[in-house]
Write a structure and sequence with these properties.
Heat Shock Protein 90; kinase; about 50% helix; TCS_sensor_his_kinase; five-stranded antiparallel beta sheet; alpha+beta; Helix Hairpins; two-component regulatory system; histidine kinase; transmembrane
């Protein structure tokens, strides 16, 4: 259940309890008010009836009042020495001889003490009960309707109150899918709890950005510092290979290790460049693929090409795009047994397919091979630094695309999907 719905239910539950208590108090108050009005009318009738009491032969009885002076539903009872000696008005059950006001059934009685005994007035209380019942029926209809309207209004108000929180959530999800160290959460204008939450999250993001920037500078500086001595080391090893043939095999291994280190440094530099990629420029991706093919080492493997004749325009960083394509090609030629197939499609976005007939990727490693420094099991694709495919995926994400691995019966198939210039962002 969503927070919005829970808040609405709690609000309606609390409002329902309050309204039920108010309705019960209203029922009791109206009922008491009606009985007070009825008792007042009976007291007035008793005050008028006292002047009608006559005594003849030491026996009290009610005289005849004015024709229009009695309500049609009023009854008067005169008691002397505990006995009913006279009565007037409508036929109602005789009450006991006592003072005060009380109810018996649906009849209301009020009595006063006289010198001769007691005088009691009575009227039917059916209209009080009827009015109370009408009020109860009205409340039975009004309360559920009011709660229903309150639920709708409360749900709308909760939505309005939580709208800034929804905006924060959507922005956070967007940042999780397409991380941007410089992006921040929207801060509500109101200086409330959500504003403080957004401000705290933005401060956290700023601290993380500073930390990442520090790590990027360290990575870049370390790569720059390593590139020069590695280049010198490779050059000296090549000179040693020319001058000292007897030690050729150990020197060749040292040269290969130096070249691997050099490639590692180059990829670290490219990763640092990817994290601070600047403005994009128009690029023909078909030309980028051809340039990468010219530079890659085929290792004696056959190459099958399926490239379009028309350009494949997009906006991006040509150095990073070329590095991503070259890493895919290096990966394919490294693990292929005999052939590599490269296909490019430029309709509804750009799709580069690089397939080889090598051992493929073991089950469960399909996503982890794109993690930096991760290597598959030794029986499969275990050689290299583990940065090539990580660079490919990062470059694809920075250009609004994606890099994926597809299962095949034999070999590996890597797809690089990018948005074309006319197609917009990749869905």
């Amino acid at each position: 259940m969503s927070l919005r719905l829970r808040l609405t239910f709690f609000y309606v539950l609390f409002l329902g309890l309050v309204m039920a208590a108010l309705a019960f108090a209203l029922h009791l108050g109206v009922r008491a008010s009606l009985y007070r009005a009825l008792d007042a009318s009976l007291q007035d009738a008793l005050a008028l009836a006292q002047g009608l009491i006559n005594q003849e032969d030491h026996t009290a009885h009610l005289g005849e009042g004015e024709a229009g002076g009695w309500p049609p539903d009023l009854a008067l009872f005169l008691f002397q020495e505990g006995r009913l000696v006279d009565r007037k008005g409508v036929n109602l059950p005789p009450p006991p001889a006592q003072a005060g006001c009380w109810s018996r059934g649906e009849v209301r009685y009020c009595g006063i003490r006289l010198e001769q005994g007691f005088l009691v007035a009575a009227r039917s209380a059916e209209w009080v009960e009827a009015a109370s019942d009408r009020l109860d029926r009205l409340l039975e209809v009004a309360l559920p309707l009011a709660l229903l309207l309150s639920f709708g209004a409360g749900y709308w108000l909760a939505g309005q109150a939580l709208a800034p929180l929804d905006a924060l959530t959507l922005k956070a999800l967007e940042l999780s899918e397409r991380p941007d160290p410089k992006a921040r959460l929207p801060e509500p204008r109101s200086r409330d709890e959500l504003h403080r939450l957004a401000r705290a999250q933005n401060r956290l993001l700023s601290a993380l950005e500073a930390h990442l920037e520090k790590e990027r500078r360290f990575l870049q500086n370390a790569a720059h510092e390593l590139r020069t001595p590695l280049a010198a080391l490779v050059g000296r090893l090549e000179q040693a290979l020319e001058q000292d043939p007897p030690a050729r095999r150990p020197l060749e291994r040292a040269r290969e290790a130096s070249i691997d280190l050099w490639h590692l440094v180059e990829r670290l530099l490219l990763l640092a460049r990817a994290e601070r990629m600047g403005a994009k420029e128009p690029v023909d991706f078909g030309a980028v693929v051809l340039e990468a093919l010219e530079e890659v080492e085929t290792r004696g493997k056959a190459l099958e090409l399926d490239l379009p004749h028309a350009p494949c325009p997009l906006k991006g960083d040509p150095i990073l795009l070329k590095a991503a394509v070259r890493n895919l090609l290096d990966n394919a030629f490294k693990f292929a047994r005999s052939r590599v197939r490269v296909g490019l499609r430029c309709q509804n976005g750009i799709l580069l397919e690089v397939a080889d007939d090598g051992p493929g990727v073991p089950p469960g490693e399909e996503e982890r091979i794109f993690e930096a420094f991760h290597q598959a099991s030794p029986a499969h694709r275990s050689q290299g630094s583990g940065l090539g495919l990580a660079l490919v995926r990062r470059v694809a994400e920075l250009h609004g695309g994606r890099a994926v691995y597809k299962m095949r019966g034999e070999g590996a198939l890597f797809l690089l999907e990018l948005p074309g210039e006319a197609s917009g962002a990749w869905p």
